[in-house]
Design brief:
three-stranded antiparallel β-sheet, Rossmann fold, 19 helices, single chain, six-stranded parallel β-sheet, alpha/beta, elongated, formyl-coa transferase, domain 3, 13 strands
């Protein structure tokens, strides 16, 4: 059995009309799992390919293992070939503004009439309701959904440092597709799936909502929260280095005091239990910081790792390309960049954080060039060489 046929969604065709992060994440997950994902792009390519700054990594990260067809959907010929392609799909994925796909006649209600087995996933800002007319971004829902409040100081809501709702919204869209594919095996019928940014954000902060329900006390933002553990902080140590250290059980407290020869702290009856230490944090943390200030981060790392205590270096994203664990475990796979100033350059990209049969789900196809598979896909749909040549000369395909 080949690697391709061993993947769980081999033989499933996904046609996606997506851009940015949320929709492409859904397609990437299905593609990593073996589905044939065909990305329908405008004639000049997905504009996500050319974003600057924090958006520069969107396309190469979320569009691996896909094929691309570039077509002018504003033309009759372009729409005809798109409809032919859509007719071959098991799954349609889209993340355009509400109403866009309906105007094109590519909405679920229109398509299911001729293909009742079709699974259709839409990625939106909000599920249907009072907010669904609003334009949403990851930052919008983080602000209105409590995540920015929980991340920053109380007087300064702060967006999380990654596109968490876009990415997780795409993950939940993919989960919905997987569930619908299983249900189709049982019923023979497709269905529409909807995933959203706002509801995803609410799910992510649900633990803080339930904290209030349980305690009656509103959750404090991360910088001013009452920690569940006494030692759970970033410490500045020798040479100005910083390291995150945690001591989260009474057993770990004993180990911590033993290995650093803090016998006086362990003997203090007011620090015996975790909750006592939490109450003593205002005085305990400055004392611990003072005692650890002469150690280097490397020395502390060695001690904590040897004794099974939680720790973490403060790492920047670009440093992860050289992370020994990711390299040793195959967590980074080679890809070739297709856009931007480094087009044609080989680099590595993070894979999905799971293993199947002891293997990581790797990269089979680089992020495609715009329209890279257009001719192959049209040939499969029955277009002749002359027809494709005319479509190309008319500017319908690229």
């Amino acid at each position: 059995m080949s690697e391709l046929t061993a993947l769980p969604y081999a033989g499933i065709r996904v046609v996606e009309f997506t851009h940015m992060v949320m929709g492409p994440t859904c397609g990437m997950i299905l593609a990593d799992l073996g589905a044939e994902v065909i990305k329908v792009e405008p004639i000049d390519g997905d504009k996500t390919r050319n974003l600057l700054g924090s958006g520069a990594g969107f396309f190469p990260m979320f569009n691996r293992n896909k094929k691309s067809i570039a077509v002018d959907m504003k033309t009759a010929d372009g729409m005809e070939l798109v409809r032919k392609l859509v007719a071959t799909a098991d799954v349609i994925s889209e993340n355009f503004k509400p109403g866009t796909m309906t105007k094109l006649g590519l909405d679920y209600e229109s398509l299911k009439k001729t293909n009742p087995q079709l699974i259709y996933v839409s990625h939106k800002g909000f599920l249907p309701g009072p907010y669904d007319h609003r334009t949403a971004l990851d930052e919008v829902v983080q602000m209105m959904g409590g995540l920015a409040y929980m991340t920053g100081p109380e007087d300064r809501p702060l967006r999380a440092g990654s596109s968490v709702n876009d990415i997780m919204g795409g993950v939940f869209g993919a989960i919905g597709v997987m569930a619908a594919l299983r249900q189709r095996e049982l019923t023979g019928q497709g269905q529409e799936i909807q995933s959203s940014l706002f509801e995803n954000n609410v799910f992510l902060v649900g633990q803080h909502m339930m904290q209030y329900a349980v305690t009656g006390n509103p959750a404090k933002p991360m910088p001013s929260r009452i920690s569940a553990w006494a030692i759970y902080d970033v410490f500045e140590v020798a040479e100005g280095e910083k390291i995150f250290l945690a001591v989260v059980t009474d057993t770990q407290w004993k180990i911590f005091c033993d290995v650093f020869s803090f016998a006086d702290l362990y003997a203090d009856p007011n620090l015996k239990l975790n909750n006592q230490r939490v109450q003593a944090r205002p005085s305990l943390i400055p004392e611990i910081k003072k005692r650890l200030a002469g150690f280097t981060a490397k020395e502390i790392t060695t001690i904590f790792e040897k004794n099974g205590l939680p720790f973490a270096p403060i790492t920047r994203p670009e440093q992860l390309f050289d992370d020994p664990h990711l390299i040793a475990t195959g967590g980074l796979a080679p890809i070739t960049l297709t856009d931007g100033p480094k087009a044609g350059t080989q680099t590595t990209t993070p894979l999905m954080p799971l293993m199947m049969n002891g293997k990581r789900l790797g990269v089979r196809l680089n992020p495609p060039k715009a329209g890279e598979q257009t001719l192959d896909i049209l040939s499969e749909l029955g277009y002749s060489a002359d027809q494709m040549k005319k479509l190309s000369s008319d500017g319908v395909i690229a």
